[in-house]
Write a structure and sequence with these properties.
4 strands; 348 residues; elongated; two-stranded antiparallel sheet; mainly alpha; single chain
Length: 348
Amino acid sequence: MLPYHNRLLGDAEVSAMLGEAADLAAMLRFEVALARAEAASGLVGAAPAAAIADRLEHFRPDMARLTQATLRDGVPVPDLVTQMREAIGGEAASTLHFGATTQDVIDTALALKLKPVFTLLEQRFEAVDSILADLIDRFGDRPLMARSRMQAAILIDVGDRLLVWRKALAQLAAALPAVADRLLILSLAGAAGTAEKFGDKIDPVRAAMAEELGLSVPTYVPHTDRDRIADLASFLSRVTGALGKVGLDIALMAQNGIDQIEIAGTGGSSAMPHKRNPILAEVLLTLARYNATQLSGIHQALVHEQERSGSAWTLEWLILPQMIEATAAALLHAASLLGSVERLGDRD
């Protein structure tokens, strides 16, 4: 994305929540929690587990080396584990990562990164709802020509249209906790999903890890069952779709000759100084169409072959973060757009 598009089409706050520093921190948290849980269950010694936690507290990997290794391995975890073992040294080094596999680390790290993202989305839903409530209070009883199939229909109140927007978003906000619950899970299933190195200790290890990390333990092997990822992507597309409807309605209301809305701070034109373009309304529609397009890619990534996949999993990394960022940006832009409304309703 070009730098001057970052604030228009991206979201710096969410980008940081999903970015390199957050990812590395989450993967380190996984390894520390794993060592502690294994020590509590007697799988590894208490002293090595304590050494892992102590020596990883200020660990920072060689990023140039990690980047080059990821090109070779397709994932960052093998070299990251090697670098951590070099930093830890001694008996504790061989204890690190016992029983886990790369996918356990990366999938759990995703869950940890998503926790603050879900909190942020909830806050932004609330902000948009509050602004819509205020608009209904200010302009709700004003007359508005309804349009059916883009043709004049009957007179309604402004509140009738705004209430449609508000209720659609409220339903999505209400669905967010259930979506989050499905995503905020621990992955600890080992090389082929059988957790073979843990024996009968797997349940207490998982329970202890999940408690430390603030996650839940799934009742299924999450390596190739990616329904939760598709569920999140679908939810994100539904959110941007609802916001895109708001954006399209506003853009149509702002047309010359329709004049059902006035917005402060509209965009200008390089060739036509008289124009007042509803930029954020257009961006909401763009982000809706973007996420709808990306959703098909996530559904392609549902097809994970056998016990573990490389290509399908990598496709998720390419698409899902961008969908999350687009959704967060849409909620932020919606609040800004709706907050800049100065008039709603027909003049006559």
